[in-house]
């Protein structure tokens, strides 16, 4: 039983009680432990922003997987971060509809305002800028996702306002397409 | 009241909020499920959906009832699963997100009916990771449906039981391929599986499994509620029902509309999307997402139907079209598409893993003025090498579609990038 392994391999100094509880909740949805690997990594990431080595090892023990097997899963998926990221991750769509309507210029403007390139994190640890594939809002291209909030019809000259809003931590708006 | 012309979007609220359980039930919601579990055998539900002629809305157009009919129905079949493919990531496609955000109960009722039809007791909704709002609304709707007796034990007073779990994914387009999706749901890398065996026989954890697209399942409650002949009559031509059609690119009003199957491309682009923006002319279009062949202005009067679009050399795909205008370079557009496919290849089989980056390098060289005359022939050869029959799954063949059709239709644009032949003395 995996519940017994919890105490042996996942000491409190590696995984928090909250993390363990949330992973346990995901485990209940699947007939075997390793099936919850992606959900478990996402739990870690929700609390820590990324998946550090120590957490990965502890989660692997919890799921009865080798750390290597779990890392092979972690590194396959682009939304699992195995390196530290900023407090807010900005995903800038570069797929075809957004590209046609000026996504490159939006990306350049974001990069200029943040002082970082794609794949980089700002020195103050506030932002990481990443390209992303189609976000499913092509009727409002170009789109940018800041944290969990999707921004429609972004133009180079609205990038500053978008970042200012992210700064104040405005409430997530409902996405209406 | 049940809106019989636009069943899929009848509950969509103007304020952008999700339709509540109460609102959903007011237009006849969960009555299809009640009819299925109380009055029909699972086989009869399958037959109703077969008779309705519902074809898969994820892109392939496979008849949904036929797919269900391949699942073993004897008691010995044991545990079975229904999986919702909500991993919408085909560039240019934005219909499933809309359906999940605006009317989540419609999907849940479709899931419950489909699960009953194949006698699955567990369903998973495989949702792409970036769809945070859809996740929040689906979680809420699942909870409300459980409390309302539409999920869980003794559904609708019958002995049918179903648990629905939401799985929030972590990226990668390949997860939309149904066997890669199953590997991902099992907590593995999302590489596709060899077929056969098909998932209906050996799917999730080796159990019989049906994978259906979100929009496909959203049609099911209406078929059960109003009957297959009503559903067939919704379509204008060969295909049954309505569909969410969309248009993006430089049209006046990009958007999404529920229209009868068989609506012409012209009506979608000119009437609903308002035609091209001022100063732009229509050059071509991808009818159903990034992995479909280009069509030209001469194809505008084709009906959006699976077979009609196939006869014109393309695919209806997801039905959300990407419009190419006369001021966007088709070669650069194809480069953008191929970069996407090269990045998203899972790397499992050689034609895809090596062919796509090769394709991208050639296109990059062309656009940078480093092209060679033999490059166009090489691109055509790559399209064949990445084509159907040579790869493990449909990713690379899909990637070849816009490229091969662009090479045929926009040849001059490719040739314009080739450096002038140097004079040989």
SSE topology:
The complex is a heterodimer of chains A (177) and B (425).
Chain A lengths: L1 H8 L7 H11 L9 H12 L4 H10 L4 H8 L13 E6 L2 H5 L2 H12 L12 E6 L11 E3 L2 E3 L7 H10 L9
Parallel strand pairs in A: 1-2
Antiparallel strand pairs in A: 1-3, 3-4
Chain B lengths: L20 H6 L4 H9 L2 H11 L11 H6 L11 E6 L9 H7 L1 H15 L3 E6 L4 H16 L15 E6 L9 H8 L23 E5 H13 L1 H7 L7 E8 L5 E6 L4 H8 L9 E5 L19 H6 L8 E6 L4 H15 L5 H18 L7 H11 L9 H15 L1 H6 L9
Parallel strand pairs in B: 1-2, 1-4, 2-3, 5-8
Antiparallel strand pairs in B: 5-6, 7-8
Helix pairs in contact in B: 2-6, 2-9, 3-6, 3-10, 5-6, 5-7, 6-9, 9-10, 13-14, 13-16, 14-15, 15-16
Keywords:
heterodimer; A: 177 residues; alpha+beta; Glutaredoxin; four-stranded mixed sheet; 8 helices; 10% strand; elongated; B: 425 residues; alpha/beta; Ubiquitin-like (UB roll); 3 domains; 17 helices
Provide a quick synopsis of the model.
The complex is a heterodimer of chains A (177) and B (425). Chain A contains eight helices and four strands, in the order H-H-H-H-H-E-H-H-E-E-E-H.
């Amino acid at each position: 039983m995996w519940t017994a392994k919890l105490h042996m391999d996942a000491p409190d100094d590696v995984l928090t009680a909250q993390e363990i509880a949330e992973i346990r909740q995901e485990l209940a949805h699947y007939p075997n432990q390793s099936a919850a690997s992606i959900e478990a990594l996402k739990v870690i990431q929700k609390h820590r922003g990324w998946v550090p080595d120590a957490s990965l090892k502890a989660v692997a023990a919890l799921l009865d997987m080798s750390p290597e097997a779990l890392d092979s899963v972690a590194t396959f998926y682009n939304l699992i971060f195995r390196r530290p990221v900023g407090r807010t991750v900005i995903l800038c769509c570069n797929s075809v509809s957004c590209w046609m309507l000026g996504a490159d210029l939006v990306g350049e403007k974001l990069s200029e305002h943040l002082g970082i390139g794609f794949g980089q994190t700002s020195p103050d640890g506030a932002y990481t800028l990443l390209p992303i594939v189609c976000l499913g809002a092509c009727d409002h291209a170009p789109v940018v996702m800041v944290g969990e909030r999707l921004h429609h019809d972004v133009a180079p000259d609205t990038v500053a306002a978008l970042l200012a809003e992210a700064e104040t931590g405005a409430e997530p708006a409902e996405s209406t397409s | 009241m049940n809106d019989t012309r636009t069943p899929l979007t009848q509950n969509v609220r103007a304020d952008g909020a999700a339709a509540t359980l109460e609102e959903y039930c007011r237009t006849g919601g969960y009555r299809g499920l009640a009819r299925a579990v109380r009055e029909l055998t699972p086989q009869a539900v399958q037959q109703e959906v077969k008779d309705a002629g519902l074809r898969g809305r994820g892109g392939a157009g496979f008849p949904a009832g036929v797919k269900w009919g391949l699942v073993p129905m004897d008691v010995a079949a044991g545990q079975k699963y229904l999986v919702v493919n909500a991993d919408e990531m085909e560039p240019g496609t934005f219909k499933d997100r809309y359906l999940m955000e605006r009317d989540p109960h419609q999907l849940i009722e479709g899931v419950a009916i489909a699960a009953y039809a194949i006698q699955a007791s567990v369903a998973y909704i495989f949702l792409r990771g970036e769809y945070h709002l859809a996740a929040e609304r689906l979680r809420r709707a699942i909870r409300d449906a459980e409390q309302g007796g539409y999920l869980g034990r003794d559904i609708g007073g019958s002995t049918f039981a179903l648990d629905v779990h939401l799985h929030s994914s972590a990226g990668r387009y390949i997860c939309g391929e149904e066997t890669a999706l199953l590997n991902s749901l099992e907590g593995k890398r999302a590489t596709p599986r060899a077929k056969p065996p098909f998932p209906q026989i050996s799917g999730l954890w080796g159990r019989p499994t049906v994978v259906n697209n979100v929009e496909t399942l959203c049609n099911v409650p209406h078929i059960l509620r109003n009957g297959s002949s009503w559903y067939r009559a919704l379509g204008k031509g060969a295909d049954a029902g309505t569909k969410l059609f969309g248009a993006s690119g430089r049209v006046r009003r990009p958007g999404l509309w529920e229209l009868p199957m068989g609506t012409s491309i012209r009506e979608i682009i000119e009437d609903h999307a308002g035609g091209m923006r001022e100063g732009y002319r229509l050059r071509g279009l991808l009818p159903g997402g990034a992995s479909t062949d280009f069509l030209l202005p001469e194809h505008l009067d084709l009906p959006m139907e699976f077979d009609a679009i196939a006869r014109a050399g393309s695919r209806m795909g997801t039905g959300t079209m990407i419009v190419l205008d006369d001021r966007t370079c088709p070669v650069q557009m194809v480069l953008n598409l191929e970069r996407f496919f090269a990045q998203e290849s899972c790397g499992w089989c050689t034609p895809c893993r090596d062919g796509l980056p090769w394709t991208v390098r050639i296109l990059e060289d062309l656009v940078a003025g480093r092209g060679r005359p033999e490059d166009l022939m090489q691109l055509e050869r790559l399209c064949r090498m990445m084509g159907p029959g040579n790869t493990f799954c449909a990713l690379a063949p899909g990637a070849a579609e816009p490229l091969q059709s662009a090479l045929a239709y926009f040849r001059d644009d490719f040739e314009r990038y080739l450096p002038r032949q140097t004079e040989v003395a």
